[in-house]
Amino acid sequence: xxxxxxxxxxxxxxxxxxxxxxxxxxxxxxxxxxxxxxxxxxxxxxxxxxxxxxxxxxxxxxxxxxxxxxxxxxxxxxxxxxxxxxxxxxxxxxxxxxxxxxxxxxxxxxxxxxxxxxxxxxxxxxxxxxxxxxxxxxxxxxxxxxxxxxxxxxxxxxxxxxxxxxxxxxxxxxxxxxxxxxxxxxxxxxxxxxxxxxxxxxxxxxxxxxxxxxxxxxxxxxxxxxxxxxxxxxxxxxxxxxxxxxxxxxxxxxxxxxxxxxxxxxxxx
Length: 269
Fold this sequence. Notes:
about 270 residues; about 15% strand; 3-stranded antiparallel beta sheet; 11 helices; about 40% helix; alpha+beta
């Protein structure tokens, strides 16, 4: 999409002013303090502007900006601390040459990718090794005293956290603008697009926080049955094995965390 404050030059190419006044004005109308406001990444219609706030204020700011999406034309995302911002910059810089896919191309690939087929391909990557059995990661439903809290609180105490304004109103496009994924067991970018489209349509899942190794999600329509929680927990297992393998140990323990929960958490080692 063409940002509301963008203009085209005589060649027809969109330009992004260093200080997009309409965005600044709208953010201030919503009472946002634009500390350190600047362009973080990208150029033209892929540029992401941002600012900083304290860690304990990052989620309230995200919520306020999520309510302003139609006016700003942007989806907010918490990008983390300075080291996380550098990580995102490195990922984006890998895609600056002419031979790399554009954001629009990555989005098109992700939206054309069947989420069910993609999850199966992730599972096949493990199963095809010949010595993997998902049954060892299944177990009984945990009792109340056994349930674990595996959610991140790492940013709440940070003195400075970066908030990015991603130039899209479509939440599952956010990973494409950040070129998020493709390291270790973290899925490739188009895979994130595909799965978050699915999870938004089913559960109203919105990415809140994307750092160098953590992705946290607000869920507007939480899972309400154990059966569905186990099915979605298995999807999460293939998408992010470390949540179980280095976290809660069983898919049922993860499902217990997903049941009636408005927050999802993913972490890749």
